[in-house]
């Protein structure tokens, strides 16, 4: 499924958002959220696997990511993405889906639930951005000087993004997979969008909801790559301890990109969680 394409769209306050769904319309709805600097493509193996066993799977590219619209002045903050996700759930007519969220998607799902009243049947968080402090030294450097980085020659920018994305994987990414993740950030529009989303990343969006984690009242599982160098495994234990009843699932030999580093193992854990 290297030719990943999202067929539907929704116009939001942050521009056009691309989305798709597949599987049995009568099956349990499951929504997959990606993180940064990725896209829904991180689910290109797990999504079809969940659909194949009867789930009605929904995916989307966050505003300013992947195949969704990108434009100057665009609000792509975590606050905006949380609002958009709530809009999407209403647009899809999903009152209480199961949600699986990776990286920034974890914060988006948590904000939609805790601040905007989105209801979930179950919530699986995969190496989420949820607890302070977060952001690597590189991430903070780019955020502080995004206007300078935007002016990099195209070849140097692409090399930087490739190295950055590659560092999220422990075993390494297949060339076609790396191309699919990097592609949206190339070209004049994509390059500007890459630095825009980093410039708007702000820890206050997780600080705002972190005190609310003990109030979460639904089944939660926290899956974490044991070799994650972006957000250490210890953060997974800390998060699971804050959410009542949450279960921590270590994923061996996987880095931050667990959906791509260990798709079979993660799919197995997610199916067990969804059918428990």
UniProtKB/TrEMBL annotation:
<protein>
    <submittedName>
        <fullName>Alpha/beta fold hydrolase</fullName>
    </submittedName>
</protein>
<feature type="domain" description="AB hydrolase-1">
    <location>
        <begin position="29"/>
        <end position="263"/>
    </location>
</feature>
<dbReference type="InterPro" id="IPR029058">
    <property type="entry name" value="AB_hydrolase_fold"/>
</dbReference>
<dbReference type="InterPro" id="IPR000073">
    <property type="entry name" value="AB_hydrolase_1"/>
</dbReference>
<dbReference type="GO" id="GO:0016787">
    <property type="term" value="F:hydrolase activity"/>
</dbReference>
<dbReference type="InterPro" id="IPR000639">
    <property type="entry name" value="Epox_hydrolase-like"/>
</dbReference>
<dbReference type="InterPro" id="IPR050266">
    <property type="entry name" value="AB_hydrolase_sf"/>
</dbReference>
<dbReference type="Pfam" id="PF00561">
    <property type="entry name" value="Abhydrolase_1"/>
</dbReference>
<keyword id="KW-0378">Hydrolase</keyword>
């Amino acid at each position: 499924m290297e030719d990943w394409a999202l067929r539907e769209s929704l116009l939001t306050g942050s521009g056009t958002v691309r989305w798709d769904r597949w599987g049995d319309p009568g099956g349990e709805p499951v929504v997959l959220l990606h993180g940064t600097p990725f896209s829904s493509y991180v689910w290109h193996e797990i999504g079809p696997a969940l659909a194949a066993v009867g789930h009605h799977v929904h995916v989307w590219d966050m505003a300013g990511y992947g195949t969704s619209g990108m434009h100057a002045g665009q609000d792509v903050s975590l606050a905006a993405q949380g609002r958009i996700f709530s809009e999407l759930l209403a647009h899809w007519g999903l009152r209480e889906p199961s949600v699986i969220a990776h990286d920034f998607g974890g914060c988006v799902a948590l904000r939609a639930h805790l601040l905007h009243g989105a209801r979930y049947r179950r919530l699986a968080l995969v190496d989420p951005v949820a607890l302070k402090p977060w952001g690597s030294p590189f991430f903070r450097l780019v955020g502080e000087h995004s206007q300078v980085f935007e002016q990099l020659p195209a070849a140097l920018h692409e090399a930087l993004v490739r190295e950055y994305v590659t560092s999220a994987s422990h075993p390494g990414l297949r060339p076609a997979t790396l191309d699919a993740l990097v592609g949206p950030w190339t070209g004049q529009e994509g390059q500007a969008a890459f630095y825009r989303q980093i410039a708007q990343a702000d820890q206050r969006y997780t600080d705002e909801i972190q005190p609310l984690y003990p109030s979460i009242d639904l089944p939660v599982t926290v899956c974490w790559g044991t070799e994650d160098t972006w957000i250490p495994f210890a953060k997974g234990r800390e998060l699971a301890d804050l959410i009542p009843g949450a279960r921590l699932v270590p994923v061996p030999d996987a880095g931050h990109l667990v959906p791509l580093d260990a798709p079979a193992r993660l799919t197995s854990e997610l199916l067990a969680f969804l059918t428990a």
